[in-house]
Design brief:
- The protein has about 270 residues and is mainly α.
- The protein is built from eleven helices and four strands; from the N terminus they run αββααααααααββαα.
- The chain has a single domain, classed as Up-down Bundle (Chitosanase, subunit A, domain 1).
- The strands form two sheets. The chain has a two-stranded antiparallel sheet. The chain has a two-stranded antiparallel ribbon with strand order 3-4.
- Helix 5 packs parallel to helix 8 and helix 9 packs parallel to helix 10.
- About 30% of the residues are buried.
């Protein structure tokens, strides 16, 4: 049985993966919808070529994602938020790494990448929200240390921020908000230079900051509303104070100039 999360999860993955590309920095070679030529040969046609990948239908890509990634990461058995986070991690960095990271974040040995019943049991003992955040933080550190970060870093940074925001909403029982309408660049598209500073192994560019900020606002609407109201009230108070001060200065009489005695005033002819 397909989880109700999967259709939306694969839709978001396709949005991030983009269309056809054949970038020299991408070890996967010819790629379409995030599906490489090797995957196409394995799941669709053993004699497939780059042209076949370029002409691949999106429904074919969805079949591959379901078999190779969602089922491999046991998406139907993971709690909300953790399922999408691990699934997208597996698509982006391989199911082997995603499985080992899930194990480590659950406090069990990462001597295997297989997500078996023991891993599922360990996951169920953890707080889904905390586990979701931990996996996404580890993912961003890992990506930042890759040699291809200068090429794909901006897109990865944005992707992890959006995956985290959606997963946190799922894990918190909130109604997930829709992704941004503008599609992310494909793997083969070189993004613009990042804005912001990267340090300590964790990216802190505008994408990560904006993703975390909107995530917090979405999950804490009452607190966010109170803070916004307080800022607006303080701003109005400051404006009123400055206006009164300006009016008071304009109404004050000019000082009278006192000329000392025996002062000779020279008048120009």
């Amino acid at each position: 049985m397909v989880s109700s999360v999967y259709p939306e999860a694969v839709r978001r993955v396709l949005l991030h993966e983009g269309g056809y590309s054949n970038h020299p920095s991408d070890p996967g070679g010819p790629t379409n919808f995030g599906i490489t030529l090797n995957d196409y040969k394995r799941f669709i046609d053993q004699s497939g070529t780059a042209i076949n990948v370029q002409r691949m239908k999106v429904d074919q890509a969805k079949v591959i994602y379901k078999s190779k990634y969602w089922d491999a990461t046991k998406g139907d058995q993971l709690p909300p938020g953790v399922d999408y986070t691990v699934f997208d991690y597996g698509v982006n960095s391989g199911t082997g790494r995603a499985g080992k990271v899930l194990r480590r974040c659950c406090g069990i040995p990462a001597d295997s990448s297989v997500i078996n019943s023991a891993v599922i049991e360990a996951v169920n003992k953890r707080d889904p929200l905390a586990l979701t955040i931990a996996i996404n933080e580890e993912r961003l550190r890992f990506l930042h240390n890759l040699k291809t970060w200068p090429v794909f870093g901006v897109g990865w940074n944005r992707r992890v921020a959006e995956v985290r925001a959606y997963s946190v909403a799922l894990a918190s029982g909130k109604k997930p908000f829709p992704p941004k309408p503008l599609p992310a660049p494909g793997k083969g598209e070189i993004p613009k230079p990042p804005v912001g500073k990267v340090g300590g192994g964790v990216a802190t560019g505008t994408a990560a900051i904006s993703g975390g900020l909107w995530e917090w606002i979405y999950l804490h609407p009452i607190t966010a509303g109170a803070l916004i109201a307080a800022v607006l009230a303080a701003t109005v108070t400051l404006i009123v104070h400055l206006k009164k001060r300006r009016d008071r200065l304009q109404e004050e009489p000019l000082p009278v100039m006192v000329v000392p005695e025996n002062t000779v005033l020279v008048q120009d002819n």
